[in-house]
Amino acid sequence: MPSFPLPVRVAAGIAATALEETRRLPRQLVGLPITVASQALQLSMRLQQQVTELAIKGDETLSLCARHEQQPEWATFDEDESGGSAESGGSAESGGSAEPGDSVREEPRSAEPDTAPPPLPGYDQLTLPQLRGTLRRLSEADLQRLLDHESTHNRRPDFERMLSNRIETLRSK
User: Fold this and answer.
1) Model confidence over 93-124: pLDDT tens digits?
2) What is the per-residue pLDDT for 95?
3) Which of 34, 49, 73, 142 has a CA positioned 20 to 30 A from the CA of residue 160?
4) Could you tell me if residue 96 is left (phi over 0), alpha (psi between -120 and 50 degrees) or otherwise beta?
5) Which residue stretches of the chain have pLDDT < 70?
6) Following CA atoms 170, 99, 66, 108 in sequence, which dihedral angle do they give, to the nearest 10 degrees?
7) This model's pTM is above 0.90
8) Terminal alpha carbon distance of the chain
9) Phi and psi, residue 154, nearest 5°
10) DSSP secondary-structure letter at 68?
11) What is the rounded CA–CA span in Å between residue 111 and residue 27?
12) Distance between CA atoms of residues 128 and 8, nearest Å
């Protein structure tokens, strides 16, 4: 059998492949909508993942440089709405208007070791709404210990802000 030049052999291979694919086309057309839908969903999910990752990275960046309001609207307490509480016992040493970036820790830190448990059992597993529900029954000293524990161990900005706001509310009464 004589040897054909490479371009002729490649052209014959392309023609044979095109013929085979044409014969398979009716079977592939049945599954084509499912394949297209599957690929579209996959692309959509990848896009959502990337957008979510960018939003998380943006949140982290903004939390480092953004100034938060002194007390977010979601961090209200019953005492704030009803006008007072008998448990406050705090003093107004802070001068009344503290910026969110200012340190609320005016009391000297105790000589507790870093491994001391927080004053609230199971504190490290609490969610933000669960913590909010328990803040009203804690004294200013307990809140300060929780804030110290949070800033030493977990360093969650929302938790630190809520504890700081509660301490500030108690001190301003």
Assistant:
1) 444 444 444 444 444 444 444 566 777 888 88
2) 43
3) 49
4) left
5) 1, 66-116
6) -70
7) no
8) 103
9) -90, -40
10) P
11) 77
12) 72
Cβ within 8 Å of residue 42, ≥6 positions away: none
Q: Output the six-digit token pair for 1.
A: 């059998």
Token reading at 57: 């990275």
The whole-angstrom separation of Cα 93 and Cα 69 is 21
Q: How far is CA 157 from the centre of its chain?
A: 10
Crossing angle for the helix pair 157-172 and 140-149, to the nearest 10 degrees: 160
> Which pLDDT score, from 0 to 100, does residue 22 have?
92
Q: How many CB atoms lie within 10 A of CB 146?
A: 25
Question: Within 10 A of 135 (CB to CB), how many other CB atoms are there?
Answer: 20
Judged by phi (left if over 0) then psi (alpha if -120 to 50, else beta), residue 97 lies in beta
Residue 169, CA atoms < 13 Å, CB-side half-sphere: 25
Contact between 8 and 16 under an 8 Å Cβ cutoff? The reply is no
Contacts of 120 (CB under 8 A, 6+ apart): 126, 134, 138, 142, 146
Tokens standing for 139? 């004294």
